[in-house]
Amino acid sequence: MLSAYPELVEFLPCKSPEAWVNWALENQTLLLNDHAHCEKKAASTAMNLMYRYVDRDNLLHKMSRLAREELLHFEQVHKLMRNRGVVYEHLTASRYANGMRKHIRTHEPARLVDTLIVGAYVEARSCERFAALAPHLDEELSKFYISLLKSEARHFEDYLALAQEYSGESIDDRVAFFREVEHQLIVEPDTEFRVHSGPPPIAA
Asked: Which Gene3D superfamilies match (predicted)?
């Protein structure tokens, strides 16, 4: 399913653990709830970048489009939840997001570059996870998640291209740095299931 996006597959350090896939299938109500939160947060991130970097023309163009698409995805997930009687509830933030963002540098343009690289990893991982889940879900959810792959892959490409555009130098070292951070967050166990969590804790 991800064969159409070889650059995305190469970008990520690993596949999602099978234990995470099984955990997701056992927690589909929570999966939908957190997925809705993820789409809303993704739109918010794009809008925040537009407010902070008003002089970056290409960023404004791409983030405006991205924010609209993420809000549409939120509406689609929320509709699925309503139709299934799933209540949209507040959830604590995932360890993944905090674990990635705490390494963002604070001076410019490094702050922007790191933020964009983190955005690329978030979108790429979302795409990979939707592809991993789709074959195991009911027809409606499977079709929905497959429909998201193209846009999530494009969001990954946009974030990465913008990071390179605004860096002024090679971003390979920072991409490699965040690749290691992302790998640890994906393979290390988590106590709470989330769309971007690691696998469940190993039973004693």
From this structure: 1.20.1260.10
